[in-house]
Design a protein that fits this description.
mainly alpha; 2 domains
């Protein structure tokens, strides 16, 4: 199982590192620079709003389905036939609730028009994620790797033509960005549906009330978990835009830094996409998951520490390279937000394990506590610190919630604490901080300093035996 995890993980990371960085740094960043912080912040807050209510579209079905298909592939045909109908029914609820709340909180007609397209995009994206949950549940990880980058690859092509193809008159508009998402999502949905359809024994969409009620009862704990996690991750930009007079600008400034955290967090999300079905299958077969958990943790925590600390010490240079405005304040926000990358990464592993083990009540209590904490912190910090207040609230929330998750994992799964490894990890973190401080003070060009920092950081990890390349190679070739 460790061999399967490593080989598929490397393929998944390779494909995503080919596509996602160019998407984030080449397309998404360029769009913000072209349209400006205020207009992008206007879009970003609406986008976050549409994602917060996305739970009404999914209702925990994706995670429930992934776990169910991983445990028994025979569930695919019957679940597919019923869940597709359920997704369309949920979309009606999503549309109604979205526009009702948007009206209540005071969105104007311009915002409403853009929100229409964004909620349609969320519906299509939710269908894609559901189709992918079938693919990964069937252990078709390489196919899922391809699907994970397809929409972004299409967006790169479409937006690249619009930005640099000289085929339009006038300045690039944020609406074009949203329309490009629609086209890319639709094409990805068609491809993913065809793949799943070929694996299903039959597909007869129908309204089986007993089956739908069973699915809803089984999936609602996943729905609550997804809702809580989305709220405390996405509520920041919505609160910024609504609470401040220059809320659009502040949301845009926050988006400049959050974009990079969101992109970096994809690495943890990719780990979770492979780990959840693997954990589910191993737990059902009563196999120990402790070794796989520790392996995935070390593979993720080392680069997370390097990325977080490197971003902190080189925050001004990185933000100056990427953006054209609001550099000083954005750089400080970036440094704070990227420290949250460490707990975010760990949370993907602990959350996947507890989900696979069926500990949804525990996760929901932790996530709800995170929501309450984050909203309260934002209400306190935004009026005084603006976008920086949201960054601080996010960091505090992520640190506390992941610490509680780790404690829950050790108690529920009865893992044995590895004191030596924890000491090594604490020592490694301190070494990397010291390394970042001294390297950033040298007289080299900052890109060279960052490369030196990364290389020495990897060497440190190898020297204290947090990373063991020979062991990884042995697992891939001999297991």
């Amino acid at each position: 199982m460790k061999k399967k995890f490593l080989t598929n993980l490397f393929i998944l990371l390779f494909l995503n590192f080919l596509v996602k960085p160019f998407w984030v740094l080449g397309i998404d960043r360029t769009v913000q620079n072209v349209v400006g912080a205020a207009e992008y912040g206007f879009y970003f807050s609406l986008f976050s709003f549409s994602i917060i209510l996305n739970i009404l579209l999914d209702f925990g079905i994706t995670n429930f389905n992934n776990r169910a298909i991983a445990r028994d592939h025979a569930n695919l045909a019957s679940y597919l036939s019923n869940i597709v109908i359920l997704k369309f029914l949920l979309s009606i609820v999503y549309f109604i609730v979205s526009f009702f709340i948007a009206f209540i909180i005071g969105y104007d007609s311009v915002q409403m028009k853009l929100l229409v397209i964004l909620v349609i995009n969320q519906f299509i994206a939710s269908l894609i994620l559901y189709m992918r949950s079938n693919v990964s549940g069937l252990q078709m990880f390489r196919t899922d790797s391809f699907l994970s980058v397809l929409d972004r690859a299409l967006m790169i092509i479409i937006c690249g033509v619009l930005l640099w193809g000289n085929i339009t008159e006038g300045k690039f508009r944020i609406e074009w960005f949203v329309y490009a998402q629609t086209v890319a999502y639709l094409l990805t949905l068609i491809v993913s549906f065809i793949i799943v359809l070929k694996k299903a024994a039959f597909f007869r969409p129908g309204f089986n009330s007993e089956m739908l009620i069973k699915i809803i009862k089984s999936s609602y704990p996943y729905a609550l978990l997804s809702m809580f996690m989305i709220i405390y991750v996405r509520i920041d930009s919505v609160m910024l835009e609504r609470m401040l007079d220059d809320g659009g600008v502040q949301a845009g400034i926050y988006a400049q830094s959050y974009r990079i955290l969101d992109a970096a967090s994809m690495m943890g999300y990719l780990f979770a996409g492979i780990l959840l079905p693997m954990f589910s299958k191993m737990i059902k077969q009563k196999q120990s998951v402790e070794e796989l958990t520790h392996l995935s943790f070390l593979l993720l925590i080392v680069p997370a520490i390097l990325v977080s600390i490197g971003s902190l010490f080189f925050r001004n240079e990185i933000i100056s390279l990427l953006y054209d405005s609001h550099i000083p304040v954005s750089a400080d926000i970036f440094g704070i937000l990227m420290l949250a990358f460490i707990p975010v990464s760990v949370g993907y592993i602990s959350g996947s394990l507890l989900t696979a083990n069926g500990n949804l009540k525990t996760l929901n209590i932790i996530a709800l506590s995170g929501v309450i904490m984050n909203v309260i912190l934002n209400l306190i910090l935004i009026p005084k610190y603006q976008a920086m207040g949201s960054a601080k609230a996010s960091l505090i929330t992520q640190l506390i919630t992941v610490l509680v998750q780790i404690i829950a994992v050790y108690r529920i799964m009865k893992f044995k604490p590895d004191i030596l490894r924890n000491i090594k990890l604490a020592g490694y973190f301190a070494l990397v901080v010291i390394l970042g401080f001294f390297v950033s003070k040298t007289s080299f060009f900052w890109v060279y300093e960052l490369l030196i920092f990364g290389l020495l950081g990897i060497i440190f990890a190898w020297s204290v035996r947090l990373l063991k390349p020979v062991s990884f190679i042995r697992i891939i070739w001999q297991e």
